[in-house]
Amino acid sequence: MDEYRVLIVDDEKELVTTIAERLQIRGIQTDTATDGETALAMIEENPPQVVVLDVMMPGIGGIEILQRMNAQNIKIPVILLTGYGSTEQGTEGMELGAFDYIMKPCDLNILISKIKEAVKLYG
Amino acid sequence: MKEMSEKEIAFIGKITAGVTHEINNALASIKEISGLMEDLLSMSSTDSFPHHEKFVKVVPKIREQVERCVTLTTQLNKFSHLTDEYTAQVELNDFIGHLVFLTQRFARIKRVDLKYQPADQSVKFSTIPIQLQMAIYYCITYFLSHTDDGGKIIIHPFMNGEQYSIRIKYEGEVSDKTKLFNDSSSKEELLILQDVISSLEGSAEFDGSVQSINLIFEVRQENN
User: Fold this and answer.
1) How far is the C-alpha of B170 from the C-alpha of B153, rounded, in Å?
2) Most CB contacts within 10 A, which of A15, A106, B15, B111?
């Protein structure tokens, strides 16, 4: 799966770095960001194939990142990570064009299959 | 005991919801870290890693306990949201199933099997969720504190014409059946229960001979 390149954005540093390491073990090249501003800059500079976004983050949250990507016409599939009290935001994200959303803690195999589906669909 | 105001209860609900969110984030990290340990173990040979086999057995147990905690925090989060609105529409089967999950521990300590027998049909109705949960909880704890260890508590909601009832029945040993609902120590507990039931505009029937409490409410709902 070397052809996949993913950006994971979550303010829980331990979580993103560990998920990234596990994805890398499985051959998925993974970059990480722990805030929205950094994520947006990374998306603009070096667009990944898939963005995995936590919806609830201090500052710019996942939904706002998605809105800004839409405003800049950035067509990258987004998988949202939702938690308690943010499942509605998952639905809202879908309306804004997110590829899918998954509840945290997520199953890594499910995340990988969503990443694969997204890459397949968006090319 | 002074009663808590609606605002105070809502405050507890908000804080609890926030904390469950944080616990969930920590659990997500623990889950991934244990997953990474499993990944690394699967990549290492038994020769290069002391106690390799033991680790292979132990590490998945971290994941199992994380899953257990996630279930608990999910239910606690759901519970904390009962205070979001003073009155709300609830689905009775789901609502009671949730409370039964949360009160299992109290029953387990008394070696009582807490069972939930859902209603045949889905019943949605408007109520004060936190108070209805309290009422059912008081019934459960009443039986737990006034009966011998062991036995079974069965909670069964059902429609009865224009009313819906929730029957909480104890099946097991009671040292003196005549004292059930009648002794002096019962008075205060039953008064609290009656008070809650009154705020819900319902009534409670106590039957010592069959060891049951029936909570009865008028139908104010959409019946599916």
Assistant:
1) 4
2) A15
B36's tokens: 């990474």
A49 contacts A4 by C-beta, under 8 angstroms: yes
User: Touching check for A84 and chain B: CB below 8 Å?
Assistant: yes
CA distance A99 to A122: 10
d(CA B187, CA B181): 8
Chain B residues touching residue A104 (CB < 8 angstroms): 24-25, 28
**What's the fold here for domain A4-118?**
Rossmann fold (3.40.50)
Q: Do A105 and B28 touch (CB under 8 A)?
A: yes
d(CA B205, CA B82): 26
Cα separation, A91 vs B182, whole angstroms: 53
What is the ipTM score, two decimals? 0.87
User: Residue A83: which of B24, B66, B81 has the nearest Cβ?
Assistant: B24
Distance CA B120, CA B123 (A): 9
- Inter-chain residue contact B77 with A85, CB threshold 8 Å: yes
Work out the pLDDT band at B2, boundaries 50, 70, 90. low
Q: How confident is the model at residue B123 (pLDDT cuts 50, 70, 90)?
A: confident
CA torsion sign for B67, B20, A95, A33 is: negative
Taking the CA of residue B62 and the nearest CA in chain A, the distance in Å comes to: 14
Six token digits for residue B35? 């997953």
Q: What is the pLDDT of residue B223?
A: 45
Residue B220 banded pLDDT, cuts 50, 70, 90: low
Name the strands in the sheet holding B88-91, side by side, starting at the edge strand that comes first in the sequence: B88-91, B123-127, B221-223
Q: Tell me the shortest Cα–Cα distance from A86 to chain B, in angstroms.
A: 10
Q: Which amino acid is at B84?
A: D
CB contacts, 8 Å: B29 with chain A: 12, 14-15, 18
> Do the Cβ atoms of A18 and B29 come within 8 Å?
yes
Residues 38-77 in B contacting A (C-alpha not used; CB under 8 Å): 39, 43, 66, 70, 73-74, 77
